[in-house]
Structure formats: structure tokens, C-alpha cells
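Progress against Task 2.4 (sequence-to-structure conversion) is shown through the following example record, which the project officer requested during the mid-term review.
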Amino acid sequence: LLETTAMRRREGPHAATTPPRLQPAVLLLSLLAPCTALRGAAARSGGAVACIDSAVQHRVPRWRDALPRGDELDDRILSVALPSIANLAVIPLVGAVDTFWIGRMGDALALAGQGAANQVFFSTYFLIAFIPTITAPLVAKAAGGGDIDGAARRVCEALFLANVLGALGTALLVLIPAAPLSVVLPPTAPAFEYARRYLRLRSLSLIPALLSSIGFAAFRGLLDNVTPLRVSLASNALNLVLDPVLIFGARLGVAGAAVATAASEVFAGGLYVALLLRRRLLRLGALLTPPRLSDLLPLLRGGAAMLLRQVALNVAFVSATRRTQLMDPTGVAAAAYSITNQVYSLGVVVMLAMQAAGATLVPSALARGGGGEGGAAGGGARGDGGATAAARRVADRLIGWSTLIAAGLGLAQAAAMPYLTPLFTPLPAVREAVAAPARVAALVTLTNGPIFAGEGIMMGLGAFGPLAAVTAAGVGVMVAGLSLSARLGLGVASVWWSLLAFHAVLLVGQLGHHLRLSPLATAGRGASSSVECAVLPPPVGEVCVAGEDAAA
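C-alpha cells generated for the chain above:
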């Protein structure tokens, strides 16, 4: 057909209408050729082609295509996710080291106080950290379309907002730490003084921590996860060295752990600023120059919904921490929750990496017109329908990967917890209190896969409002569960059962959005230009099918 089209163009209206004789090999090519081969043939013959005809009826079912299969798409996902996992894992590993050294003090109240202070610090941090959550997809969209200047503007706008809001948060936590702490821990609690000292010193690094988060989001938006990994390794190595020196050598106790963590975050923030300047994604004047309101609208529109989501999440986890702090005056229940949560967070960072992959790969695929050879760079062959179908395939595969990884993490967590608990505390009462909640926490880990992948996909699509609504509904269920468990006098395990109920709501809402309500859910429906692509074993490669039922 390509040769006939070219012949007609060369010979004019009197050209022969009978196509040239096609050899069997050419017929096979016309049915199974990769899109790239067909486009190459089109370019050589003067014709044009989008993808192979809908006569090819065999398609890989969507659920099966979502499973890892060792193809180019898996390579692309892992190239983004694995460095993110290594980067994000450094943070809870260092937190685990903090918990380890404080646990070596042999004081359950010190461990409980650190847990309460960290909850207040991170609640404040995450109320402001909606900014980098929005920044990564915006940078990915701009960079995917080749607009590096636009990506730099987004980074500068995010940094300005982070400086302003971070200064307010720092003033609150440093000058009057007792006020926010009282939300989590009653002022008369024995662990309150430990928490107050830790929080005041830890909060000095709030602005640097926000700068680091935005720097990480900027490089993630550029699909560069190696640079943030290097920054994290360098800064957290400093923390690892300072912890025992300040806690025991300088005899600062819990305050020494706070100083070590703050120093490492200041170091990381400075590194990110230097790297952003080198990549020309930042101008120093932009840190203090207010951007125009019109430039801030993309951040503020998505930020309002994400702020609501962060408020809802903070309500849930502050309630959980307060519930454990009030269970007993000795701090055993709070220490057990702190240890369980610390181990659980090691698995969460892997899921956060999959969330980050979804927040960057999905908008990047849409911005490139489907990516690879099929996007705008490839002559616009796939068009908008092809871009949406390609983004949906990325999203489905992310969910498949995340689900399998979470299942492995949950089983590993359940098996390893009896051996990990003695590393965190020498106290028999705390070790015994950890056993039951650790088993429920492993169940919660099993549900993390599709949830975190779904969050990343919704962020990448800009569906911040629906994401906030689903989160708020889940938080309502969790808070109700915590309230019921408090009335019944249940233990630490009930906090994790409440979190599991929260995850059940998230799972239903996010998968429902992805399969029914998302723009990706209707990719290719009812349009003759719809495209479904799959990668077959060599030497075939990528096969794309165009037709009205391509979304089947």
C-alpha cells in the first residue's frame, strides 16, 4: 500500500491502481512490523503511516500487560524507580539508626518523646511539602515538552513558596514548641520534656529540608534520580557519624540526635541549591523575589487540593500517635508504636518511589505524545489518542510492579520483625508490646502497592481534587476506628487495624478512579485513531494496533 501511494504521487492520476506484488515476507511485515519499521518504510516511499491496521485481532489483555514482563517499559520504570528507592530509603534507614541509638539509652520515655516530636515535625513539614508534590509533575511536563526554561520557572516558584511557608513553620516550632506538641502529647506526660527539646532543635532544619524536597522533585521531574541519591548518601552519612558522637560522646542524649539530623539536612539543602544553580534551574534572586500570581496559579490550583489532603493525613497520623501516647504512662505502648512504625516506613519508601515514578512517567508520556518513536518526535503518528494509550500502559504496569513489590515487602516484614525488634530496644516489655501490632502492620504493607502507584498516577494526571476527596474519606474511617478502639480500651494493634481500614477506602477510590473515571480509563474508546501497543519478543519488537475497539 505504501508503494502504491508513492507510485500514484510520482505518476499522477494515470498511475496504475493495482498494487505491486507483495512477497510473503512483506505481508508478514505489514501485519507484525514494529511501528518504527513501518514509519521508516513510509519515509522511504514518500507515504505516511500511523500503525498497523485493526485487522490484527490478537491483543494482550490489559490485566496481563500490567504484569512485569522484562520489556522496554519495565526497563524505563525501573530506571526511574530504583534510584528513587535507594534515595528515599536512606531517610528511614537513618531514622532507624536514630531510633537504634536512642533505644540504646535504655529509656522508653526517650523513645516515646522522640516519636512524638518527629510526628509534630513531619506534620508541619508535610503541610508545606504539598509544593514539591505539585512541582515534580509540572517539571516533568515542561521538560518532556522540551521547555527547560519553563521547568526552571516552576522550580523557582516552588522554592519561593517553600521559603515563606517554611519560615512561618520554623518560627512556630522553635519559639513555642509546647503548643504544637500538646496536640500529640499532653503537657503533663512524662515524655513531654524529651519531646520538647528534640523538636526545638530538629525544627531548625525545616527550611533546608523543604529545599531538599523541592530539589529532589526537580531532578525527579527531569527523570534524574541518581543526583538526589548522591546528595542523600553524602548528607545522611554525616548524620550517621554525628549520632553516636553527640548522643553519647557529647552526652546530649535525645537532643544530640536532633542536632545530628538537623546538621545533615542543612548540608543537603545547601548541596541541592548548588546543584540547581549549576543546572540553571535556579537563580539566587528568585529565592527572595515574589513570582507573579499568574505564574503561581498551577501550583496553587493543585496545591489547594493537596494541602487539604495533607491536612487530612496529618489528622489521621497525629490521632494515631496521640492514641498510643495516652495508652499508658510508662511509654511502653508509644515506644512499641514508634518501633513498628519505623520498620513499616522502610517499606513505605519503596512504595513512595513507585508513586514518584507514576507522578513523572505518566505526564512525561503524555507530553511526548506517547514517548519513544510514537510521539511527536516520531512524526506525530500516534497523536493524542496514542499518547493517552501509552500513558495508560505505563500506569497499568506501575500498578502491577507496585502490587508485586508490596506483597514481597509485607511477607519480609512479617518474617523479619522478631529479629529486628531486639535491635531497637533492650526492654522486654517493649519487645512484647511490638509483636501483635507488627503482624497487622505487615498486612497494611500488603495493601501499599496499588495505593501508592494509584496516588502517583493521579498526581501525574493532575487529579489532585479526587485524590484529596478519597484521602479525606479514608481518614474519616481511620479516625472513627481510633475513637472506637479508645472506648474499648484496645492496644497498639488497634491503631494499625484502623490504618488498614483507611487503606481499604483508598484502594477502592483510587482503583475506581483509574479504571472508570480517569482520562486514561477511556483511552482509545470510540475513535478510529485509537492505538494499542505491545512489545513482542525479538525480532518483532513493538506492535501497535489501530481500531475502534483498541481499548478492549
